[in-house]
Amino acid sequence: MTSLARWCLRRRFTVVVLWLAALVGSIAAATLAGSSYSDDYSVPGTESARATALLQKAFPGQSGDDTIVWHTEHGTVRAADVEQRMKTTLHEVAALPGVAHVDSPYASSGASGLVSKDRHTAYASLTFDSTAGGPGKAEVQKVVDTARKAADGNLSVALGGSTIGTTEGASGHLSEIIGVVVAAVVLFVVFGSLAASVLPIATALVGVGTASMGTTLLGHVMNVAGFAPMLGTLIGLGVGIDYALFIVTRHRKGLRQGLPVAVAAERAVATTGRAVVFAGGTVCVALLGMLILRLSFLNGVAIAASLTVVLTVAASVTLLPALLGIIGPPAPSAAGNAAASPSGSPARRAPPVWPPAGPPSSNATPSCWAPSRLPSCWSWRCPPSPSTWAPPTRATTPRRAPPGRPTTCSPAASAPGSTAP
User: Fold this and answer.
1) Which residue has the higher pLDDT, 402 or 203?
2) Beta-carbon neighbour count of residue 184 at 10 Å?
3) Per the count of CB atoms within 10 A, which of 94, 368, 392, 417 is most buried?
4) What's the rounded Cα separation, in Å, for the pair 371 and 321?
């Protein structure tokens, strides 16, 4: 980790450019290739899967759970103009790609249960083609637009169902944006520094963005569920901000100790970076545990989420030290800057001076009993005052004190007007 951190610090601009190139390249590739997520959550071999297969084969018109509903304010759905308009609309919907069958109440064999008792409301059962992973979002949206063209002032048309619901999902990531904003505010309040609060979020966003585009491309290689990108984004933002926060905190601690920026960042990655890599590996192992469940729609989710964690860890131990080296000394918080010296380095407390200036007071505690002020007093075995210590009965030869050291630690010997025994 030390060699990696040193390399990233020396080539910090190169590291930043490489990560930005990876992000932009993955976005361009995912945009050109498009998404190919699978919404097939069936589990082969189960009783429900066999029953669904038999239902689709024998009664294709009864196997779908999507419907087209229309309602009239005046008149009934059996009125000539309403019936003619909806017949034409349902025929156009049945001819669209991705639609397997439309069960219309106006068909010669139409069921009477498809029309309400007051004859103001009717519905048609809509079945999509389930082969090749089901219809795409564009095909489903075309069905919705075609059906809604039949609506006017008296006739209202609505659609519902699991497949139709895929067109109503919000395209933006509002929840992720709110989470990032809240995290930025919390980090700024805690650190009191804009740079220290932005760095973890920026690192996590670069890693998660690259992984999200990689998940889109992964959908063309294997079956990836439609909720995999959202799940990977939430996991990546959580671990990415957390891991980067560890390294930034360690880096700031080194700056407060007076270390240069490069040395503080290198030590932060060399120490905390090991814990980050270990924690990321543990998360990946836990996510890949979904592979042993033998649920095909979870395999792509496990691999996509693990890819997100790997990229966020890589960004934390490579991109983050490069950004720390670019930002330089302004990374400490306002509290740390207030305690810093005018030259920019943190102010250090002056070491205690021995002997202390001025004569000690007569009632002061002997300094040799204060090891926090003079630890060497214990090593030289200076005795306390005679009033509290009795000399040994066996005569001993006193040791010569080293040059520059006081010959006694007794306050009586240094008190004004006193005589040595």
Assistant:
1) 203
2) 17
3) 368
4) 41
Rounded CA-CA distance 35/17 in Å is 27
What are 280-330's pLDDT values in tens digits? Answer: 999 999 988 888 887 777 888 889 899 999 999 999 999 988 888 888 764
Task: Check residue 311 and give left, alpha or beta (phi > 0: left; psi -120 to 50: alpha).
Answer: alpha
- Whole-angstrom CA distances from 107 to 98, 144, 404 are 21, 21, 114
Q: Give the DSSP H/E element, type plus range, for residue 83.
A: helix 80-94
**C-beta atoms surrounding 153 within 10 Å:** 7
Q: Which two tokens stand for residue 52?
A: 């669904």
Token output for 85: 């308009």
DSSP 3-state of 68: strand
> Which own/partner contact pairs does 30-35 have at CB distance under 8 Å and 24+ positions apart?
30/213, 30/214, 30/216, 30/217, 33/216, 33/217, 33/220, 34/216, 35/216, 35/219
pLDDT, one tens digit per residue, over 255-267 is: 888 888 888 888 8
Q: Kindly tell me the sign of the dihedral angle through the C-alpha atoms of 69, 75, 77, 81.
A: negative
Q: Which of 148, 154, 153 is nearest to 90 (CA)?
A: 148
Those residues whose C-beta lies under 8 Å from the C-beta of residue 121, and which sit 6 or more positions away, are: 69, 70, 71, 72, 77, 115
Q: What is the pTM of this model?
A: 0.59
H-run or E-run covering 183:
helix 174-191
Q: Please name which of 401, 402, 400, 420 lies closest in space to residue 410, comparing C-alpha atoms.
A: 420
Neighbours of 371 (CB within 10 A): 12
Q: Is pLDDT of 420 > 50? A: no
Residue where the block lists tokens 């944006």: 177
Query: Is residue 235 classed as helix, strand or coil in its secondary structure?
Result: helix
Mean pLDDT, residues 100-114 taken together: 71
